[in-house]
Amino acid sequence: MSKQPFLIAMTFMSIIIGGGFASGQEVLQFFTGYGAIGIAGTLVSGLLFAFLGMQIARMSSTMQASSHKEVLEALFGKRAGLVIDLVLSFFLFGVGVVMLAGSGSIFAQQYGLPPLFGGVLLSVLVILTLCLRVRGIINLISLIMPVLLLLVLTITVYSFFTSSASLETLEAAAAEVPTISDGWSFSHWFIGALLYASFNIAVGFPMLSVIGGLTRDTREASLGGILGGVGLGVLIFLLNIGLFANLERLAGVDMPSLMLATAVSPVVAMVMSVALICMIYSTAVGMFFAFSARFAAPESGRFKLFSVIFTLVGLVLSQFGFSTLIGTVYPMLGVVGLILIVALGIRWYSTRQRSKAQLASSASR
Length: 365
Known about the structure:
The chain crosses the membrane at residues 34-54, 82-107, 113-132, 139-161, 189-211, 223-247, 267-291, 303-322, 328-349. Helix content is 81%, strand content 0%. The protein is mainly α and 365 residues long.
């Protein structure tokens, strides 16, 4: 087997495991805040990621799609696909803004620097990266993943085994944590799990469509999507239990995983802050790439100009704050993701039915 499935899986995971995930803020609001039952939510999200990753990668590979717009058109038709594309592009830009805000929070929490410093630094790195060729961006993002993954896992597992808080204390702390469905008519862990998968699949959809389109072997593309989804599920599960085990001291913290790293040692905290910046960077690149590609062909002069303009506008908007932006942008993007999930599910079901009909027709001859 070639390395392509692993490249797809690593890139898929890297785009989704950005600042919100690696910081622990996403997992805190979507899973940990529901208490121990949030663990069930991580399993639901993991299964959804595996199925959706497989379906998107397979579709784009079959079509040899050059952008996510072609896949959207196949799912919704020309007019509806255009509407979904415009809405999705708008919210992808919002996620890019969240990443710039996350960089600012890291430098403020860990180094005592103004949030604007971290935002400016990341903006410069994003702009420079978007001047690379598309395959260069994909390779760069996928290479970052394994090293950073190991660091996050080490810290969260260590934190879990060194926790001494009782289950009652942790459940009480969870009741004080804002969850993503607070303010709805009812709050439930399954809603958190479904919204997490839906908004993240919307985030990963454009880049996964491009990678799938670059893969000629449909089976390899499908396997890459499945591996990436399973990997995401495992990571969400581990980070969730690490956060839950230490929840009594994480209330009101913008970067929970950085707080856990600080408890291990100052050196680990410094390394973790660099890792978080790299993870935020990988997602920011993916988001601003997808948004800029909506208005100009990648690698063109116009694309580079738009990349600079959009990133600078995002820097200005990022000053509203990291936690606030996550709680605002992500639920709305989750609604777009839910529409994608339904469309992908219908497409999968209709494809299976056609395959069964063709097999039955062949057998009757």
